[in-house]
């Protein structure tokens, strides 16, 4: 005779591991134009492998993420930022 298994409860995860909501820095500071000459500020949106950070990691909104990407690309073209990691 087979034993009946007890129904499993759904897995509950601890609340302390949930990431906090990220907000767009540029919306918060009401910045309309992202200057490509400000390499120090743009450096926060570059990974250690010199890749542009995605929205889910940087926390920027779609509008400002496009502006950040364009500014980084322009800054790289003008030799203000590296194409490859240091």
From TrEMBL:
Matching InterPro entries: Ribosomal_bS18 (IPR001648), Ribosomal_bS18_sf (IPR036870)
SUPFAM superfamilies according to UniProt: Ribosomal protein S18
Keyword field: Ribonucleoprotein, Ribosomal protein, RNA-binding, rRNA-binding
Annotated Gene Ontology cellular component terms: cytosolic small ribosomal subunit
GO molecular function terms listed in the Swiss-Prot or TrEMBL record: small ribosomal subunit rRNA binding; structural constituent of ribosome
Gene3D superfamilies the UniProt entry points to: Ribosomal protein S18
GO biological process, one term: translation
Top-level division of the source organism's lineage: Bacteria
Function: Binds as a heterodimer with protein bS6 to the central domain of the 16S rRNA, where it helps stabilize the platform of the 30S subunit.
Sequence similarity: Belongs to the bacterial ribosomal protein bS18 family.
NCBIfam families in UniProt: S18
HAMAP family: Ribosomal_bS18
Quaternary context: Part of the 30S ribosomal subunit. Forms a tight heterodimer with protein bS6.
Record protein name field: Small ribosomal subunit protein bS18
Species of the source: candidate division Kazan bacterium RIFCSPLOWO2_01_FULL_48_13
